[in-house]
Fold this protein.
Amino acid sequence: MERNKGKTSKGIILVLILLTISLSILLYFTYNEYLEYNNILKDNKELNSKINILNKEYTKELDIKKELEYNENTLNNIEEEIIKLKEEVFSLASKLEDKITNSESNYKIAYLTFDDGPYLSTDEVLDILDKYKVKATFFTIGLDKDICYDNNNYSCAETYKKEVDLGHTIANHTYTHAIFRGLYNSTTSFISDVKRQETLIEERTGVKTNIVRFPGGSSTARGLKESIINELRNLGYGWADWTANDGDGGYLPNTTVAWNNFTNSINENIEVVLFHDYSNITISILPKAIEYLQDNNYILLPLFYNSIKVNK
């Protein structure tokens, strides 16, 4: 019996040892799996974090792409928007002209116009106008403008586009301005010069202008005036002379004479002021002239085809 009891005890001990070993092995593998699981979780967290970062970056890129597309569309449509805005301004200006003409408004209008450019000095004029937030009209010619007439070291070819981009009205003053060299030989010679300048303006700016000023004024055309006007009308052009000036188209000795000429000529409720953007004297009095007009209740605007100051 005692021998059997000994055998039983040894059996139990052996079983316990085997169980212990089995549990140890199980625990070992379970712990390793646990560690591996934790590592997987950790890796997943890092991966998720990277995915979140990538998602955020992708979202940013999408936002940037959308913004770029929006800006690109805006740029593509900006010229159309500018045209619409100008049309709205000109429509309001036309209504204001009617009110002024009918004595229904205390406001007055002054159309600043600059002839014979562009010159290198035109940039100074543009800077002054920009400072005062004023838009004007530039009656341009084409001859000798690729090389600036007032400084042969520079080109004035880009100034046409600059005038348009800044919101000014660009107008036609014939290509050559050759008053005494064949421009007024015939209606055909005049109209050909107008068409040549029309082509240049459109090529340089994309704008097809519809306002002309006769070099020297419409009276310079003499007996050809009515014939030229008829042809201009057929081409869709209006024409504009001027009602005020500082005398810079002729001999102008100093700023005092220019200022007196200018102020003495301002006497209408709707003025078309003639200046030349080559004149240093005009440029020197221009800020004061703008302030003078504004102080006297003038609104300064660029000319437009439907203005009553543009003859059709």
In short: The two ends are 141 Å apart (CA to CA). Residues 1-5 have pLDDT under 50 and may be disordered.
